[in-house]
Amino acid sequence: MYTDNFGTWQQICNNYFPTTQWQVFPTAVDNSSLFRLTFFTDWVRWKIKYSAYKSYGLIRFVYDDGNVTANTKIYLREEPFLMSLPSFPEINVTRKLALARRFWRQADWIENHPDMDLKWAVTIDSLVG
pLDDT tens across 48-100, in order? Predict the structure, then answer.
């Protein structure tokens, strides 16, 4: 945990490279509704059109009773950004954040051209209380 001008933050993942498989992070985010996402990639290459095959992320909550929320798309940005996702403290179940990576189109194409895959990593923090 660390504190800044916004308050106290708990790290959910640090420099995580998402895959196309869902990753459920072990830290519970039951009462958190504000998240800070910081992306890492080759930004020079990212800005050049057709220089690489780009992707985006999907984020959702997974509850300990087996339910999941709808997916929310996350798009890479050079600057950290805040994302608000609703919390429901009246529901007495544990919820965790899940993340997966998706390609824009023709995802099978990347398998034959792995050098064109512009991978990225993300650090996600949740505002505590």
Answer: 887 788 889 999 999 988 889 999 999 999 999 999 988 766 667 888 999 99
Q: Provide the CB-side half-sphere exposure for 60 (13 A, CA).
A: 15
Q: Count each helix (H run) and each strand (E run) in the chain, helices first.
A: 2, 9
CA 73/CA 75 separation, integer angstroms: 7
Which residues, 6+ apart, have CB-to-CB distance to 35 below 8 Å?
Answer: 12, 29, 82, 83, 84, 85, 97, 124, 125, 126, 127
| Domains of the chain, CATH where assigned | 2-128 (2.60.120)
| CA-closest candidate to residue 39, choices 6, 4, 75, 84 | 75
Side-chain half-sphere exposure of 15, counting CA atoms within 13 A: 0
